[in-house]
Amino acid sequence: MTLIGIISFGQENILDQNENGMNSIEPTELDSLYVRALNSRIDLILGSGWNYVEMSGYGKRIAELDVSDRIKFLTDEELIDLSIKKKKTINIIRLNHKIVAKDTIDIIFGDVSVTAKRGMFFQRGIRFKKAEFSVGCRGTNGYQPDIRFVFDRKENKWNLITNRFVNTNE
Fold first, then answer.
1. What is the dihedral of CA 150, 153, 157, 159, to 10 degrees?
2. Does residue 168 form part of some domain?
3. How many CA atoms are closer than 13 Å to the CA of 35, on its beta-carbon side?
4. Interatomic CA distance for residues 133 and 111, integer angstroms
5. What letter would DSSP give residue 23?
6. Total domain count for the chain?
7. Domain range spanning residue 139?
8. Is residue 63, in this structure, part of any structural domain at all?
9. Three-class SS state of 12
10. What is the pLDDT of residue 126?
11. Which of 16, 89, 116, 121 could form an S-S bond across to 83 if both were Cys, CB 3.0 to 4.6 Å?
12. Is 3 part of any domain?
């Protein structure tokens, strides 16, 4: 009978597997990647007006962190009220991520539009607001990450390698 053991000498890594053996990342680490991704969106920072982020899921967790002052986090109800007040469609960003490998995470920005009206609507009872949420299509160009982070084990930090919103080709 052979006994094989693994000994580690203080080499803790933030990329450990969870109890199911799946790749996992700490929520605080993931939140910091979301903040870095939002702050690296030059198109949002330099654009005029507000940029709205949906405050469900991941948006709720990072709303209080250090994100650009050009970005507002709003709930679905606040988005509906804003669309009614401005009498136009509001474009918002839906945050999501995909763990591609143990050391690679893609941050995905989904496009969502909200159009709302005030009135009297008879759909499953009487309603005074009607809202339509439309999710944008990413096209048929295959999977392309918006922003990709890769973990550097030597420096023990996440490096941004791909940013679809910054064109470095001249």
1. -30
2. no
3. 16
4. 10
5. B
6. 1
7. 27-163
8. yes
9. coil
10. 67
11. 116
12. no
